[in-house]
Specification:
The protein is an alpha+beta fold. 37% of the residues lie in helices and 14% in strands. It has 2 domains: 196 residues, D-Maltodextrin-Binding Protein, domain 2 (3-Layer(aba) Sandwich); 224 residues, 3-Layer(aba) Sandwich (D-Maltodextrin-Binding Protein, domain 2), CATH 3.40.190. α14 runs antiparallel to α15.
Length: 431
Amino acid sequence: MKKIFALFLVLTFVLAACGKSGTDSSSVPDGSSDSPSGDKVSIIITNGKGEIASQWEQAAKDFMVANPNINVETYSISVGDPINIFDKLTKSGKTVTIAMFEPSAVLNKYKDVGIDLSNEKWNEETDAAFKNEQGQVVGFPFAIEGLGLVYNNTVIEKVTGGTFDPFSINTRDKLKELLDKLQASGIKYPVAFQTENWSVSNHYSTQFLNQADDPASVVAQLKAGSLDLASNEAWNGYYDTLDLLTSKQYNKFGERPLGKYYDDAHVSVGKGDSAILFNGNWAFDSLKAVAGDNFGFLSVPVDNNPDNPLNNKISAGSTQILTINKQATAAEQEAAKKFLDWLVYDEAGQDFVVNKSQIVSAFKNNPNKVTNPLGAAISEAIAAGKTMPFSLNYTISEDWMNVLGPEVQKYVDKKQSREDLAKKIAAYFKK
């Protein structure tokens, strides 16, 4: 979801019996049909998670085996491409049937795209159905993801001398004590903190929105100009912790804090040269490519109060939403609904989401559990009530990345004061 690499488009065509539309009954068992006219229905699905492009391709094939009169084309975008593939296909004259969007996009840029899904049966199996401001379900929750301080458990347990409870690090002083222990063990830089604009802005710097039970209420205060960031304890607390994590003392990149360090950070933590980085469960693909599979999440502490909920939870929520396009035909929309049902109720669909894609399912009836240790950590935190909302969902991520990201980077690079950063964020919301 989040890595910024070179821009390229991974285009996957998954076609079964392409061109056999019309009334060719040789491809229609028992003369059954998925459209009123008996024609084969073709739908287009866009996938915004490029790291699982091959899994989507196979899912389309499996679905078509079970639904031979529905033809599926899947288009997957490369990780980090800032242009949504929905826009590219729409501009080329194609009608996307099922589009994958980030939640903030569903509520803002693409708020007029999706049909009302409130009456779909799968709503009974999830608490994460995505609603618009009118309370209509307009999005199918495809992926539950989370973020925090990713740690190499093998390294940390070697230093702490036993089974490590990540939620025991629930103050900033305890985090500093852990970093000092890691250094004393011979790890020169315990932290490898990559500072790409998306990482320090719409991922790290939005966490303060969780100071209220409803992050949207904090956004409303910012828009109204009634929240003074410079004096806000939670906002300052996150930046106090950021100062610690990006310092020359603990951060591998502290001498030159700005750079393209994503790959280097993951190699360092994966190999155990460092022990901690800030990222989400999607980072496991990079970590496992290096070595091992023993990773977990620490909360990001904002102060030294062990009872502060912010110090005892990780941020988690639905990050990828599937919508059915209003511009699709009635037959295409019905075929799209069948695909969503397949993801929830069919064993092959359930297997695709969790086992094949290592996605934390939003649906209670899915019996599968992710083996990805970071995904498993999120599942366990959800079960233990140790999660707070995914703050990115309450922002316009493109703005935080492109408008505010450079401002946070200036702060990290000590080219801007915290007071000036607060003014820049306030000015953004006043617009």
